[in-house]
Amino acid sequence: MEPLAIKPLLGLLNLLRPTGGHGQSVSEGVDPRCRQQLKCRPHSLFTPSWPAQACWGAGAAMQKVGGGGSVSSGRPIKCVVVGDGTVGKTCMLISYTTDSFPGEYVPTVFDNYSAAMMCDGVPVSLGLWDTAGQEDYDRLRPLSYPQTDVFLICFSVVSPSSFENVTSKWFPEIKHHCPDAPIILVGTKMDLREDKETLQQLSEQGLSPIKREQGQKLCSKIRAIKYLECSALTQRGLRQVFDEAVRAVLRPEPLKRRQRRCKLV
């Protein structure tokens, strides 16, 4: 397979999120599976996008478009990822685009990327937008929503609170700003569902992992296109998440063929 041609896009949240110095981002928590520190080169408002890069990643099965691999090739699709902090949104995006699970989890360090690819024979330029889940960003986060084609609402299968927040926070927020945009519900960190240490920690709090059936039920409740589970660490189910995100835009359900226009309030 040919590698993806990807390049960072200039995103508002990249400019607005606080940093702890050049190349460092403020951390909200550490994923128990992470060991190394991750750094991000911040964007400047007046600097052009970085040069295009090539990555193999889990998404490499979607082949590069054309001979030059220009990221402008194909239909542009904007995919925005939302969910509580520490559910693994950034790790999921980094693992997918680089085929490498990051070391220490630093929240929202993934720059917005555009990947030229083929999906079911259709050339697509998939834009991947990371967002910050902390309350401090509640007023800034919607700035990335306009013209979004599809949303990934994420929760961790080992974090019941993040599962509950899909209904109480994330779904209402998305429907308010982008009422017609399709949604893929994603359960992350599925590899920890059988992890003894994680199960022990949950048990001590009187909690247990979210079952697949619970995710499917929530999917129906919020009328999401699909419910999928994945692991950024093992990459199990990872490619399918983004494949289905693209398909949700290319092949919308007949009753949902409406223009996806977002509003800012």
UniProtKB/TrEMBL annotation:
A GO term for molecular function: protein kinase binding
CDD domains per record: Rho (cd00157)
Entry keywords, A to Z: GTP-binding, Lipoprotein, Methylation, Nucleotide-binding, Phagocytosis, Prenylation, Signal
Pfam families (alphabetical): Ras
Signal sequence coordinates: 1-23
NCBIfam families, A to Z: small_GTP
Protein name stated in the entry: Ras-related C3 botulinum toxin substrate 1
Higher taxonomy: Eukaryota, Metazoa, Ecdysozoa, Arthropoda, Chelicerata
